């Protein structure tokens, strides 16, 4: 018995201890939940469609009255199964685009990351200017045109606009792009 656990055997040799279950790293990552749900739904619909087609075929061979209704339901199920497969594809593409897997310049995820980076830079800049007491040449508190915003001279406003463009923050008074909240 002790031989299985790596203890020395009667001949003086020791066996390598190997557990019953060996965990191996996955070669492919797990599918996202939304995609996996759509895929399971599509597989179930396809299985039901194949069962209906088989019953329709066997009923036709047997000359049963059930053949005609099963053929009709098989045709309808084929349409639904096609929809299910397309649903998996659309869900997969949508998940990729929202979560940044697609590395295309027009990717929505890339644009959202860019917006988040700009917001972080603006927050850091605001924190730095607040730490310095808000002083500095032509730099006021960043504003989006809200009431109570500090007034600046024309030269200061031009400097702010040029600096904001260099950093990637919209200039004061510029319309900030709004986006819909991400759905879960």
Concise synopsis of the structure shown:
The protein has helices at residues 33-62, 67-99, 108-131, 154-167. It is mainly alpha-helical and 184 residues long.
- Record field, number of beta strands: 0
The biggest beta sheet reads: none
Helix coverage percent of residues?
Answer: 40-55%
Quote the distance from N terminus to C terminus. 53 Å
Structural class: mainly alpha
- Please provide the ordered H/E string of secondary-structure elements: HHHH
Sum up the overall morphology in one term: elongated
Q: Which stretches are poorly predicted, pLDDT < 50 over at least 5 residues?
A: none
Measured on Cα atoms, how large is the radius of gyration? 32 Å
Measured by DSSP, the beta-strand proportion falls in under 5%
**What's the rounded overall pLDDT mean?**
75
Count of discrete alpha- or pi-helical segments spanning 4 or more residues: 4
Oligomerization state? single chain
Main attributes of the structure:
184 residues; mainly alpha
Would you give an account of this structure?
The chain is an all-alpha fold and 184 residues long. 55% of the residues lie in helices and 0% in strands. It has four helices and no strands. The protein is elongated, with a radius of gyration of 32 Å. It starts with 32 loop residues before the first helix and ends in a 17-residue tail after the last helix. The model has no long low-confidence stretch (mean pLDDT 75).
